[in-house]
Structure formats: structure tokens, C-alpha cells
Amino acid sequence: MSDDLESLLDAVNAAANRHALLAEALHAPFGLSAGMRSLLLLLAGGEALTLSEIAERRAVSRQFIQKLATPLIAQGLLLAEPNPRHKRSPKLRLSDWGQRIVAKLRQREAAAHGAILAALPAEARAQTRSALETLAAALAAAMPDSPPVENKARRAAR
Question: How many domains does the chain divide into?
Fold first, then answer.
């Protein structure tokens, strides 16, 4: 790997690691991992989704989402509702308690995010976003050709 690319990826990883530490500190009082928080925020949009739909949106396995969802259901933050299209694949949505927790999470995050944004002028944010999008596209283009991973949701849609 070239030194340029290595140093760029090191900077991206360092920022991601610092973000993970910040997220862990912000969510610790709620007993939530970053993955759990991400799942709650995805469902805060109001749309009930199956595990497979969530996994597809997050580009992870259904099993990974199941591991996140199970404790959230047990804690009463998520509800598993019947899915008329598939009896064995319930739709998940936030419970009222889950909505209140998401509101509290967003409050805690707003202060931290405000401080971060204050340290980054709008022009720097736009340049960073553009550079990261370009990097993501270059990484995707460099992926060796391999058959796409097919999941049950895609097969069922056929």
C-alpha cells in the first residue's frame, strides 16, 4: 500500500475510532452499543422494517441485526409486530419507550455535535464529505470481482 493511501486510511480510522469512543461515552448511561443506537435511529424514522430490510440498508448480515434487536426487544425499546407478508419475519418498530430513549439520545448528542461542528467551518465539512465520498467510491471500484451476496429478501422478491 502506498504511504499516501496508508496515511489517509489511518486518518479515517483514527477519526472513526474517536467517534466510536465519543458514542460509547454518550450512550453508556442507556446501556446501548453504537450498533444498537444506529438501529434505534433507523427505526425512529417511523417505518417498521424486517431484520432483512434493516440488514440490507446497513450492509450487514441479518444475523448481526438479530443480535442487536433481541436485547432491544427484551428491554422494551423495540416491538416485533406481525408481518402480513411473511409470518416468520416480523416487522420491528420503536415502542413508545424506545421513542423517548431516542429523544434523550438525540439531546445528549446535540451538545457534542454542536461542539464538533463549531470546530469545523462549513467549507471544511463540505471538502471532507466530498473527499470521503470519493474515497468510498475508489474503494468500491477496487473491490475484486466476486458474485454478490444474495440474501433471502432478494430471493423472495424474485
Answer: 1
